[in-house]
Amino acid sequence: MLIELILNGLIIGCIYALIAVGLTLIFGVMRIINMCHGDLVMLGMYASIILYEKYSILPYFSAILLQPFFLLLGALIYKLIDHIPLKQREMNSLILTLGVSFVISTSVMLIFSADYRTVTLPFSQEVLQLGVIRIGYPYVISSAFSIVIIVLFYYLIMRTKIGRAIRAVASDPETASTLGIDIKKISFLTYSIGVSLASIAGCIISPILYAYPFVGGIFIIKAFVIVVLGGMGSIHGAFLGALLLGVGESLIIPYFEHSMKDLFAFILFILFLLFKPTGIFGGKSRV
Amino acid sequence: MDIRKKIVIVSIIYLCVLLLPFFINMQEHKYLMDIFLHLNLALTLANSWNILGGFAGQVSFGHAGFVGIGAYTVALLVHYLKLSCWTALLFSGFFSCCIALFLGLLTLKLRGPYFALATLATAEIAKIIVVGARSFTMGTQGVAVEKTPLLGSENYLVFLFLFALMLSFISIISSLLIRYSKTGYFFIAIRESENATMAAGINVFKYKVIALLISGYLAGAYGGILAIHTGFVDPESAFDISRTVEPIFISYIGGVGTVIGPIIGSLLLVPIGEVLRTEFTTAHLLFYGIMLILFATFFPKGLAGLIKLGARKNVAKNK
In the predicted model, is pLDDT for residue B72 greater than 70? Predict the structure, then answer.
């Protein structure tokens, strides 16, 4: 029973990681908090639901198919952020992305109403049995998919030239720019990667969780919790934080009633902000 | 114009509005009065947010929490202690202020976006606690707020109108007083550079707490009036995220960090919002969102900044 809970937590954690790592990367490179990150996840959920209902395309394929659309949307939001003068960017981008978040969620509500929706795949009820452990197939496929994406992402950041440039800008923008790195280009790339990861997470989570127009609020808060847990701007920290939150949540669910389940994340969040704002991996304090 | 003249002008305008109920039949023009009530409430909340986020530069994403706490204070005092709802209203701001003090001592050491995130989380925690403490707060079922006659009269709309008017008056006056006092200059100094303010020997933490207390009081009292107005309080409506977002919209579009900003913003946005709300249920939120994007990106000083710019250009032309 315990192993099953931990495994379930790890699976959810993998998907949380996709959302949080984009948020932390954007924060690290651009020094802004992308308040509309959760709504991009929500948009991914809705898009994959619509594609499945209309053309019966599996959410795992639509995660790839929808990328051009999301990259375009991301580029549009990036253009708006880029328009704010650098000096006011920290606070005004917070307000701007909050506005974007509101526009996305209310438009979805106006088009699709506030009903809860989900994708029912042909194998939604089937269960993978490994000895005593039982896991639903959608969970297995989604976690496998997210692990593949995470590995690709990790390769991109750690092994390629672009990734090295992104890490350079995150650790010291001034030095990076004197070394000939185009900060604007890297910022744009980072934002696109973040948006793309969020939309993929949305698509592959739609067979597992219910979608409704304001579900983005929950994702953004959880992603913040993870990012603060792992240390703002730290990629490794975000992975670890996501797994920790996923396991922690799934372990306390049986002992508390449903409405209290999110309390765990928030209290952890406040405690970390107060006592260890630099996160698990420490590092340079930015608070 | 010095501050005394401004206070006199505001007082005169409010006295004129105060006479309104004597000329207009409230029952006939219920819709109009409703918009007016909402205008005053929105103005109060926007001022509350602006004092903390505009003057002191501590952007809050947790005003829904203060509003919810204020609303539940009234509801629970009426329900358990059988207080008159008007007496309970006096406590709502006070209790919200106490929570703000607690919150401030915990989180105001944090800066910028971190503080914003901490307020977002604490508002959610307050909501979850209210939902979870079912035996005390009735959980998601909500609590009914019984209206009690005041001074032997049952004309609730008039009383609500007067209370809302009083509250918005207090909020404008406190915003004015703060803006032109030493405290206000400290607030602005903190907004511009916390390190420099600290280096000048000013107790930054103390002034941030003061800003949060004023803001929390106004937001809590807003919640109290809201609870009496709707006659019912439940977690979803009391901690509605739009109470966090609306004051930000209004302040930003009017002009964040100015006294006149929230006034312009609410005078302009609330009537448009109310009309849109009655025409198409949720379209007003979409409208607010688009306006916020436009203003945050292209006119970060808001309408107040644009007007000032226009006036300056006019003066230059006349010279």
Answer: yes
In a domain, B285, yes or no: no
Contact A34, A216 (CB under 8 A): no
Does B318 map to a domain?
no
Find where tokens 């939120």 sit: B285
Lowest mean pLDDT among A270-274, B205-209, B246-250: A270-274
Rounded distance, CA A117 to CA A68, Å? 24
What average pLDDT does this structure show over A237-253?
Answer: 87
Question: By the CB < 8 Å criterion, does A90 face chain B?
Answer: yes
Q: Would residue B31 count as lying in a domain?
A: yes
Range of the domain at B61: 3-240
B292 touches chain A (CB under 8 A): yes
More confident residue, B113 or A200: A200
The residue extents of the domains of chain A are: 21-225
Residue B24 lies in a domain: yes
Q: Which of B115, B122, B124, B280 to mutate to test the interface with A (most CBs of A within 10 A)?
A: B124
Please report the pLDDT score of residue B133 as a whole number.
Answer: 78
pTM, 2 dp: 0.85
Question: Which residues of chain B neighbour A102 with C-beta distances below 8 Å?
Answer: 245, 285-286, 288-289, 292
Contacts of A231 (CB under 8 A, 6+ apart): A237, A278, A279, A280, A281, A282, A283
Tell me whether B248 touches chain A (CB under 8 Å): yes
The gap between the terminal CA atoms of chain B, to the nearest Å, is: 21
Q: How many domains does chain B have?
A: 1
Q: What is the pLDDT of residue B7?
A: 83
